[in-house]
Amino acid sequence: QGDLMMVGGFAALMLLNVWGLPLAVALPLAIAGMGLLGWALERAVIQPVLGQPAFAIVMLTLGLGYIARGAITMLPNVGTDTHALNLPYTGPVALGGGVVVGVEQLVVIGATLLLCVGLYALFRYTRVGVAMQAVSQNQLAAYYMGIPVRRLNGYVWALAAGVAAVAAVLLAPITFVHANMGLIGLKAFPAAVIGGFGSLPGALVGGVIIGVVEALAGFYLPDGVKDVSAYVLVLVMLMVRPHGLFGERLSKKV
Prior knowledge:
- The protein folds into 2 domains: 2-90 and 99-178, no CATH class; 180-247, no CATH class.
- It has 10 helices and 2 strands.
- It has helices at residues 2-18, 23-46, 54-73, 103-125, 127-137, 139-144, 149-175, 188-195, 200-220, 225-240; strands at residues 92-96, 99-102.
- A two-stranded antiparallel sheet has the order 1-2.
- Helix 1 (2-18) packs parallel to helix 3 (54-73), helix 2 crosses helix 7 and helix 4 (103-125) runs antiparallel to helix 7.
- The two termini are 35 Å apart.
């Protein structure tokens, strides 16, 4: 997912900086292009190994990430440099009481809330979203109930890649666009573990907790602690509350 975000960042870079398209045009094009790429990857690479051990799929996706980073770095005058997107919003905003934040920070917060509400509505109130949840819980049972599992897997990859493009545009003013920007996507895993897998509000709360812990660790603790604080927090959460703050307790009766 992190490397898809990186590719989405470079797609937005080409549309905004090279072709000079406005953000209102470039962002939908980047989302659509990344959605198509995600669907194609699922069809061409992931679908043939469905049913194999999870380790095989994990190694396959890790390999895809390395290929994506390598391909980007081979592009002349693009992949080896750090780039800034030409976005129409920038600069500080005073909120009162001496609190000053960047416009890009407020855009991240607002866009994330809108995206979470949209995804929640998709998974809760649409047939496709409910079917996606069923497939995520038990693909075989969903298949026997008449749900088109293969088609939905392609939809999920397209949706994930499109969301990754949005994340890349939101993150670009903070970290800029470069070949290794996808590594920050690793922080999504601790956020999901802390919040609870399958819970969108939990993922949001988990991300806020990770951000606060890293900020405090970087300020009060020695150098290097900030980089590992998120994963230490995950270990503590797995020992104390393995299903996360908002995750469902699932059990299987035989």
